[in-house]
Amino acid sequence: MTQKKSDTYCIVSSTEELVEALRKLSKSIGSLSSVLNEMQDELEQQYNSHIDLDLLELETIDIPKTIH
Question: Which of the ends of the chain has fewer CB neighbours closer than 10 A, N or C?
């Protein structure tokens, strides 16, 4: 029987319970990994968008002609 002691650990009394606990942990890690990958993709898109905007702004800057 699994006894939940806290959010960070549990006590298992059989190999089957250990295997089940590890499966749940693996699934949670997979879910977390998916969320982090989505966040990374979103941040990369935002970063790339800012770079594109910066380059666009650089291309449209009027440089005053100081040479007569």
Answer: C
CB atoms within 10 A of CB 12: 15
The encoded tokens of residue 59 equal 């291309």
pLDDT in tens, the chain (68 residues): 455 555 667 778 899 988 998 999 999 999 999 999 999 999 888 887 776 666 666 665 566 666 65
List the structure tokens of 57: 């702004």
Instruction: Report if residue 3 sits inside a domain.
Output: no
Which of 37, 31, 38, 35 has its CA nearest to residue 23?
Answer: 31
Query: What's the pTM value of the predicted model, to 2 decimals?
Result: 0.51
Characterise 11 by phi-psi region: left (phi > 0), alpha (psi -120 to 50), beta (else). Answer: beta
Tally of domains within the chain: 1
